[in-house]
């Protein structure tokens, strides 16, 4: 039996393709970028693997924002790790979370999604037209990569919340901030996952979750109205980074005014109802508050 010919012809030129690359995607890339198309498509997108984390507490309370669960997604080539808080584990919320991770990239560029056999993941991949490979039911080792990432994200959120002194219900922001800070770090002299995915270095400030920062409030919010003599900056608690679809940062930080936490019980069991109506400011100007927050 001879070796099968895995090559394909695009615009009259023969190119050897990895078996997992979609010809439709290659045609589009080749049309714009010539001979580098095959290498670029193979390098930018490997397999995606994802899994849910059930995050509601022992009393059944959701996290801040009425989020009950989280979807953890990993791009195995770039090592880009992301978590999206979701209101439920149904197919629609799962599809939205996956689409936000992929961003503007066309469906042809997603090589494969690997996950367990949860119905919402199956429905989401079908609706998004992603190639979907399922793990073996009942054998956790076949889905070990993403399950290990789940534990990593959970531990990162716990440490972030304890360090910040905030209740556990703030996990949606703690998880997102921790993942982003991980993605912008260089490992062993290599480029960061953020750079591999977006082909640009992170130019902002790396700030721990829950840190005290000086910020300029959003001018369009009613609670930001100030008199002419008021200082332009206010003291707040850093909540993380606002990301565009695809995980790219556009220069926006998330900050909650320190006044929102005054006279509030910050024990780790405090329910989210104690923080009803609190929404972070979106700002492009923050300064690290080195003295900390008492």
Unreliable sequence segments: 6-42
- Give the strand order, joined by hyphens, for the main sheet: 5-4-3-6-7
State the helicity in percent bands: 25-40%
Number of helices: 7
Order of helices and strands: EEHHEEEHEHEHHHEEEEE
Instruction: State the shape.
Output: globular
Rg of Cα set: 22 Å
Average pLDDT: 81
Sheet having the most strands: 5 strands, mixed
Helix/strand structural class: alpha+beta
Task: Say how many strands there are.
Answer: 12
Sheet-strand content, in percent, reads 15-25%
**Distance separating the two termini:** 74 Å
Task: Please summarize what this structure is.
This protein has helices spanning 23-33, 37-44, 91-102, 119-128, 144-164, 171-183, 193-198; strands at 7-10, 13-16, 47-54, 69-75, 80-86, 112-115, 132-134, 212-215, 234-244, 248-257, 281-283, 286-288.
Could you explain how this protein is built, in words?
The chain has 294 residues and is an alpha+beta fold. It is 28% helix and 23% strand. It has a 5-stranded mixed sheet, with helices on both faces. It has a 5-stranded antiparallel sheet with strand order 11-10-9-8-12. A hairpin with a 3-residue loop joins strand 9 and strand 10. Helix 3 packs across helix 4. Residues 6-42 have low confidence and may be disordered.
Furnish the topology, listing elements before pairings:
Elements: E1 7-10, E2 13-16, H1 23-33, H2 37-44, E3 47-54, E4 69-75, E5 80-86, H3 91-102, E6 112-115, H4 119-128, E7 132-134, H5 144-164, H6 171-183, H7 193-198, E8 212-215, E9 234-244, E10 248-257, E11 281-283, E12 286-288
Parallel strand pairs: 3-6, 6-7
Antiparallel strand pairs: 1-2, 3-4, 4-5, 8-9, 8-12, 9-10, 10-11
